[in-house]
Amino acid sequence: MSNVTYQPIQSGSTNYGNNTPNGGQFVTFVDNPYVSQAEFLMSQEAISLGLTSSSPIVASGQLANYILQASAWVNRYTDRWFDMQRVWETSTGFVVRPYNPQLITVRARNGPPYNTINQMYIQVLKWFIAIDLSSTTGYLQDFYDNGYCKIVPLLSNSGSGTGSPLPAAIVDRIPLGVLWMDYTSGFGTQLTKYAMGTGNGTATVFQAATGNQLWCQSNNLWSQQINVLEPLTVYENGVVVSSTNYTVDYVNGKITFNTPPANGVNISADFWTYESIPADVKYATILKAIYDFGWAAFNPMMNNNLSVPGLNISYDKETQTKRVENMLESYRLKRITLI
Fold it and tell me: pLDDT value at position 57?
């Protein structure tokens, strides 16, 4: 097994093309790891199994895949994504009723909560009309904690000017419109000028400390992957470094320079981390990865029950999985009925 190298999975990456109202790429949620390898190896479960940074499962890259697969399982079970991402969503089946105004409810697919609605358009045929989301004149009411927003009643039938965010007459009682929403959701923390270390003239790799190693993905990682708000920025003594001078390992919080920074140069970076994901979600991910690894290592024939040789221990896979499910039960997405 130690001679096998595993290519890290890029889970859920799909190129939908540049067909959004502003000409950008249509982006949906993807799976990302909820714990770094360092956090995993610090868990009591990993320590009990004797796993270290030099273990074959780590060196081969297999551990990274186990963590990602466990994180994806958490997403499917809870029907949501916990790391901060920015996506596009569309919805249909709504009407405006300009002569009997009602709030138009728009539910975010992910959450609750969501962080912010970045853009919103209504499409009729090939035309897109932007809805005013500005803080002073916006037509949006946000209910962040419940994962939905409402567009306020329309004040006119005009599609321009200050009276209405969209032409009410064309979606009067008939669901002709398609609503496009660009929004950000998930747990994330922004760090600015985070100290990555000091150059010594030979080192090229600089890594964030454990607890800040899960970085939100950037647009320049792969074309169909998304960033949250801003791409990562790297500094040498406070001066921005060109992105062509280094590569980034987002899931381990590492920056690798093409040439070693000079001795005494302070390396820092701006980035978003999703290490603020709830602790029980992260622990559930560790347990699921441990169960999957243990089941594959000690029970490759996938028997329903597993007994460890030499020990009076019996494991039941259903019971072990149920433990993880119980930890995540309160996070399962329960959609409320909205009017």
Answer: 87
Q: Are strands 178-185 and 127-130 parallel, antiparallel or unpaired?
A: unpaired
Distance CA 113, CA 54 (A): 39
User: Distance between CA atoms of 59 and 56, rounded to whole angstroms?
Assistant: 5
Q: How far apart are CA 243 and CA 261, in angstroms?
A: 14
Query: How many angstroms separate the CA atoms of 227 and 230, rounded?
Result: 7
Q: What is the pTM of this model?
A: 0.81
What gap in Å lies between CA 227 and CA 213, rounded to an integer?
A: 16
To the nearest whole number, what is the mean pLDDT of the chain?
A: 79
List pLDDT tens digits, range 92-103: 876 666 666 667
How confident is residue 192, by pLDDT bands cut at 50, 70 and 90? very high
- Going along the chain, which residue ranges are E strands? 85-91, 104-107, 114-124, 127-130, 140-143, 148-151, 178-185, 189-198, 205-207, 233-236, 239-240, 246-249, 254-257, 266-273, 305-307, 314-316
Quickly count: other Cβ atoms within 10 Å of residue 280's Cβ.
12
Query: What is d(CA 136, CA 142) in angstroms, rounded to the nearest whole number?
Result: 14
Rounded alpha-carbon distances, angstroms, from residue 177 to 118, 142, 265? 19, 21, 55
Q: What is the pLDDT of residue 237?
A: 96
Q: Residue 112, preceding bond cis, omega within 30 degrees? A: yes
- List pLDDT tens digits, range 56-76: 888 888 898 899 999 999 999
Tokens representing residue 299 in the block: 């029970």
More confident site: 85 or 261 = 261
Q: Which residues contact 27 (CB under 8 A, 6 or more apart)?
A: 16, 86, 87, 88, 224, 226
